[in-house]
Amino acid sequence: MRTLIYPEWLIDGTGADALGGYALAFGESGRIAAVAPASQVAEAAADSVVRAPGMTLLPGLINMHVHLSLASDNAPFIPYMDAHSDVALGLRAAHSAAASLQAGVTTLRDCGSRGRSVLDLRAARAEGLLHIPRVLAAGHALTISGGHMRPFGGEVDGVDGVCRMVRQLVSNGADFIKMAGSGGGTPGSLTDYPSFSIAEFQAAVETAHGLGRRVTVHCTAAAAIERAVSAGVDSIEHGYFGAPGNFQAYDARLADQLAQQRVSVTPTLQVFRDMAELLPAGAERDFWQSRREILVTNVGRLHAAGVQLTAGSDAGWRFTRFDNYARELEEMASAGLSALEVVHAATGAASQAIGREAEFGTLRPGLSADLVLVDGNLAEDIRHVGSVRRVYVEGELMASPTPSPSGRGQG
Ligand SMILES: [Zn+2]
Asked: Residue 47 falls within a domain, yes or no?
């Protein structure tokens, strides 16, 4: 049996303009069979038909940066990790993945967890035990001794150690390699300073690429971006240009280098928005609001410099939830991206950044029927992405949320 969907508008995820009067068909294989003007699609009696006037059809959203095993409750990171077994982390991850469907997310890229907790989640999905989005997992992130994310278990030093850990992660089934290129929110790590040496970055890149895996690097310091890019990494997470004592720094030359070397950046703005909007009024809230404004400005500059941005929210970390991904996409729009550019960053550009563009991320015949229907004309206003009506993963209807009155789903 085929399913035919007739939306009022269709965004194909390639960055192209929205199309009116189109239909999309997919078959029992879970693959898209046709994307064509509705008048050219022959309807058979056995077809299941979805008419969606007033709605936009787009590829399922990709959240490029999540931590499925973290709880979105701003709990102190080290005590949280100490208090939870790997089984508890895995159960949390299953809950987080299911919640993501409500936001139209059909692919999750987990950027760090402990042990096998998220790798096993991915395996449980493959066995049909869980109805959740597609999961790509890094396992634990590589970090220097005392570095950011060390409670995940990835502390490593030296070229030999880095090579060994990359090989072990790939052997355990990691889809990609994640490195902490600077410190971050883990106490004792230094946010404004780079961590690994260039030689260590190069060893990770050479080893991972040799085993068919890409490398992405957490960078909250300009010096970290500089080292990572010169070592040939594939993408950057966060992409903040911090310098010791100066969060506002921005480096136009480095931005040009990112653009020229086609290194994509996932800016993870939602964490700052959530902190600025959910903390009680006071000095801490003001601090996050000021950082939020600096980052939105810098992300606009990266976009203007031609750096390919990809969308990811850092869900799990601090207060950031899995079921309101629209808040990240809205924040990218406030940095100066058009609604179509934001959709591209969360679909086609994201699948390209992880080398999976032949499988999912755009609406083309042969690709996985990962689909989202939202209320309204999304190309005109990114906020419609919060009004999710239907979510298909590999052709299976996995969620049909009823939008809240505001259509935004934030709570
Ligand atoms: Zn993260």
From this structure: yes
